[in-house]
Design goal:
The complex is a heterodimer of chains A (about 180) and B (about 425). Chain A is an alpha+beta fold and about 180 residues long. Chain A has helices spanning about 1-20, 35-40, 65-70, 90-100, 125-145, 170-175; strands at about 75-80, 110-115, 150-155, 175-180. Chain A has a 4-stranded mixed beta sheet with strand order 1-4-2-3. In chain B, about 10% of the residues lie in helices and about 45% in strands. The chains are: A alpha+beta (about 180), B mainly beta (about 425). The interface of A and B includes residues 160 and 164 of A.
Amino acid sequence: MKFTTVFLLPFLVMLLAACADKAPELALNPQNPSPQVQNPEITNDTQISNMGKMDENVQYGSTDERIAAISQEVQPIYFATDSYTISPSEQEKIEADAQIFNGDLAQDLSIRVEGNCDEWGTDEYNYALGLKRAKSAKDALSIAGVSEGRMALISYGESKPICSEHNDACWQQNRRADFTLLP
Amino acid sequence: MRKIILLLLSSIYLFAFDSTIEIVKNIDKKARIAVADCSAGNVNQSVNRKFLKLLIGDLKVTTHFRVDDAYRKLSYSDNNVLSQLANAGVELLVKTKLESDPSGKLVASVKLINAKNNSQLYEKFYSISKPKRYPFLAHNVTIDINDFFGAPPVTWMRKYVIFAMYTRSGKSSIIVSDYTLTFKKTIISGGLNLFPKWANDKQNSFYYTSYNGLKPTLYKVDIYTGVKRKIASSSGMIVCSDVSKDGNKILVTMAPHDQPDIYLVDVNSGSKRRLTSYKGIDVSGNFVDNESKIVFISERLGYPNIFAKSISGGKVEQMIYHGKNNSSCSTFGKYIVYSSREGRNSFGKNTFNLYLISTQTDFIRKLTTSGKNLFPRFAQDGETVLFIKYIGAKSLLGVLRLNANKSFLFPLRAGKIQSIDW
């Protein structure tokens, strides 16, 4: 009897230890849960496809159509009264417009920068002020990377108002530099 | 009678030595004048009525008479009612008989009569081959009546006014008219046509800017033949602002390097000399001091103001120390009339008014008080200023009589006046 207990007891201890290992405890890190816990719905028969890289290519029937499409994205630059300085908020538009002008669709086009004024003051002075606004816009675009050789200036003074109401909002709309794309 | 009127007018004008001093006239000393319709049956009565109305208006604009504007129908030859008119205080009577002759000409027969003693002062006949230009008949009648009494001449009344008019966004026409805008003829139309400027005193040609080509271009046009000649072109802008007395040189604002500056251009050789070099705005040059200097608009002090410099070079002199925005001016001898905004507020009801200064005194005289008053232009007599007035959306041509301190306004029914010259 004593011989059996001495030889069998270690085997019993080892057997108990092995059974305890059959079900180990998982110390889950709540900060980084295992992927299996995150996506319990994914099973072995789930199919995942990827989009793959696509080259986008817009074709226009004519240059005029291309210019019309690009022009819709271009923003005019607005100025304060009696001023031809470009404000920081307008500078953002210059950056955006420069990207458009240097983009694939527009890089072969010329740009006419057109200065405009509100109705206040004598028109002869306003034509000069409009020209200075156009020049400021051109210089800003040049700094933003648009080739100077692509740009020509013209002033329209107060001859091309967008609106005709006599209020601050309308006058602000008319104090602007426009961009016309040309083949 | 004539001597009395002459004496009265002379005594009043003794105070007109410096136009910057306001004149207060004693209205009772001006002769009271009336106009009578003695027209024949073969004339268009609508034209006749308009002619009479213009004649009455012209006499008022001279500011040398008290005008009775009641309508009177009288016989051209019968003087029986004259004593009644005299009793009503009428001292002078202008009898006018308007009729069409067999060749289609419009003929005006005019008698000037002293209503107090029934004496005929003179009889004259005026004719015009183009009846649509009847306003000039009225103007010529008025000029002669005014001259008869030795009053300061009003010969500017027979001058053509030329102006550009915006018809819609990006479109403008050039029109020749009389000073009341009654007669109008479109000379240039189609596209954007701006800044007309008479090329000489005879008014047989003018300069203007066309935006209808690749670049803004300055042309000279003969108004009788319609022949057009290119003078110069410039990227950005080009405007003729003044013409020398001999017509051989013009002052032009142009921007060949994207920079608006004033240039002296020889119209015969085409040579150009740059007169200003400020990096900002220099515009609207006008000859002064026997064309040895120019007066011009510049924002070199941070706002539009009026400066002068010698044509041969040298320093720039500030001329006006008043106002916050002085963007247009005209000169006559020692006088400068300019448009000025006094307040810092850019917008408002009374923001641009006309002022008169003498380069030899410190006086500033305010000439207008309401509306937006721009683009003043002296007449050749130096006593009358033409200008543009905007009231809301309306454009009006203004005529300012400096010595009488009165202005007269003539509305444009459609369109917006952009620039003027006479």
